[in-house]
Amino acid sequence: MTLHRLLYRSDIAMVGSEATIRQHLGEIVATSQRRNAADGLTGSLLQAHGVFLQVLEGSLPAIETTFERICCDLRHRRVELIELVPIEQRLFAEWAMAPITLDHDLEALLPSRDAMRDFATDAACAQATVDLMRSLLVAARGRAAFRASEAAAIVA
Predict the structure, then answer these.
(1) Each residue of 126-146: pLDDT tens digit?
(2) Percentage of residues in the chain with pLDDT exceeding 70?
């Protein structure tokens, strides 16, 4: 089976308090994890500055079906396909859908909302964006594990 990777961005079209939006994001991730696991898809979702960036990896038919559903989802505005390319291996193979949860320090490293909306669509930029998402995911998870170990050390 030939694998493909899709990268898109969209503006978040959800309204409500920060807690309400966080709850909706949790629901999106949980639903995506179930669907993607069933469809053999892997990937990651980054939400920052009112913008979604998402990577999907898997078979082309599964990616196309999922992307069509995303394009029809009213929680997204201005959905833009950045890249759809064949790949040799998955970069997010461990995750059916990994949310990239940024703390204030990591979010500050990202470009502004306007800059995120204006990412170039050339292959080098798309690959750099995917690599950045992978790095942010690993960094965010490493920081969370470090904080958990610090908390355990304090309790002990």
Answers:
(1) 888 898 888 888 887 776 555
(2) 79
The contacts found for 138-142 with CB under 8 angstroms, 24 or more apart, are: 139/106, 140/100, 140/101, 140/102, 140/103, 140/106
What CA dihedral angle connects 111, 7, 101 and 17, to 10 degrees? 80
What is the per-residue pLDDT for 143? 63
Query: Over the stretch 33-56, which tens digit does the pLDDT of each residue have?
Result: 999 999 999 999 988 888 889 999
**Residue with token string 């304090």:** 154
Cβ contacts of 52 within 8 Å, gap of 6 or more: 8, 9, 10, 11, 12, 45, 46, 76
Task: Mark the ranges of the chain whose per-residue pLDDT is less than 50.
Answer: 151
Q: Is the distance from CB of 8 to CB of 54 less than 8 angstroms?
A: yes
Residue with tokens 């610090």: 150
Please report, for residues 107, 109, 141, the alpha-carbon distance to residue 151 in angstroms, rounded to integers and kept in the order given.
23, 26, 15
Number of helices (H) and strands (E) in the chain: give both, helices first: 5, 5
